[in-house]
From TrEMBL:
CDD domains: retropepsin_like. This is Uncharacterized protein. It comes from Spinacia oleracea. InterPro entries: DNA/RNA_pol_sf, Peptidase_aspartic_dom_sf.
Length: 336
């Protein structure tokens, strides 16, 4: 089983969202579960643990710290083993999972790290927001994450600056021998988000950066003090020349500052790919994109190039086309 174009249908691109799932933990649905391959432990955060109605006395003490990516350390409240199920019915996979319980505010209820991913024989693609795992029947199975839930967690973290999710880095150690299937974790997620990304606070108004030039505007809040508002508008208009409203207004970087060159092996023979034929629909999309790049001075015509590659057209979920370039041959010829 592989990841395919069908896996990213319905996903809003471009995105940098993590994989967030809803899992069955101890026979209860738990939302806001982050799948994090960078974490070397499975974490259940303290607020989620308290709502599970498990006595703190049932935790097994641990004497090693958890180290975050910022270098900060903290000691877990303890460890506990809980049953976890991915998927349903014939696609289910049941595992007994060791969790560390950490008392820190977080936008997630649970972090699933490398130990779980390895035990489930799983492969994670954050690009597709999908995970492939082996079911109880030893069949490769896919589970899709929620982009809306991922962005809701992002919003929650922004609204509360103290909410930091720590990437865990510690030696995997044995925790308590315990199994429990009668917990009452009933939908921890009670914080639905209405917007996918942070929005402005309060009312806003549109102002002209250059009076009389239509389209060259910006937006500011209306709830600021009059004096501050006047100074802000004056400042924006004074530096209106630093704003760009189209690609052809971007002057680029002086080659004396930085310039790109092909760093290919000298003994490698250059490759000129044979021209590929495209459908009428793709040709129209290619022509439009090339005209846009020419107008922005991002590209220019070139006779007898050393390297020549075809473009690759990828259809977006919106139905439009993304134009990429096949640099496979060139990448192979360049030192890593």
């Amino acid at each position: 089983m592989i990841f395919s174009e069908a896996d990213y249908r319905g996903i809003i691109f471009p995105h940098d969202d993590p994989l967030v799932l809803a899992l069955d933990i101890a026979n209860s649905d738990v939302n806001r579960v982050l799948i994090d391959g960078g974490s070397s432990a499975n974490i259940i955060f303290w607020e989620a643990f308290k709502q599970s109605h498990i006595s703190e006395e049932e935790l097994t003490r641990v004497n090693y710290p958890v180290v975050g990516f910022s270098g900060s350390t903290m000691y877990p409240k303890g460890s506990i083993r809980l049953p976890v199920r991915i998927g349903d019915r014939s696609e289910a996979r049941d595992l007994m999972v060791d969790f560390l319980s950490i008392k820190v505010s977080a936008a997630y209820n649970v972090i699933i790290g490398c130990p779980f991913i390895h035990d489930a024989q799983a492969i994670v693609s954050t690009y597709h927001l999908t995970m492939i795992y082996m079911s109880n029947l030893e069949r490769p199975t896919k589970i899709r994450g929620s982009q809306e839930a991922a962005r809701s967690c992002y919003l929650t973290a922004l609204k509360t600056p103290s909410m930091i999710v720590h990437e865990v880095n510690l030696a995997r150690e044995a925790s308590a021998k315990r199994g429990r299937a009668d917990l009452n974790m009933k939908h921890f997620d009670e914080r639905p988000a209405t917007t996918p990304r942070p929005s402005t606070y309060g009312l806003t108004e549109e102002i002209e950066l250059e009076v009389g030039r239509q389209g060259r505007t910006d937006v500011i809040g209306t709830e600021t003090e009059v004096g501050m508002r006047v100074n802000l508008i004056g400042l924006l208009r004074e530096h209106a020349d630093v704003f760009s409203f189209s690609a052809n207004e971007v002057s680029g970087i002086d080659p004396n500052v930085i310039v790109h060159r092909l760093n290919a092996y000298k003994n490698v023979r250059s490759v000129r790919q044979k021209k590929q034929n495209f459908s009428i629909e793709k040709m129209a999309a290619i022509q439009e994109e090339v005209e846009n790049l020419l107008a922005a001075d991002f590209i220019e015509p070139c006779d007898y190039p050393e390297w020549l590659a075809n473009v690759v057209m990828v259809k977006k979920p919106s139905g439009s086309w993304r134009m990429c370039v096949d640099f496979t041959n060139l990448i192979r010829a360049c030192p890593k």
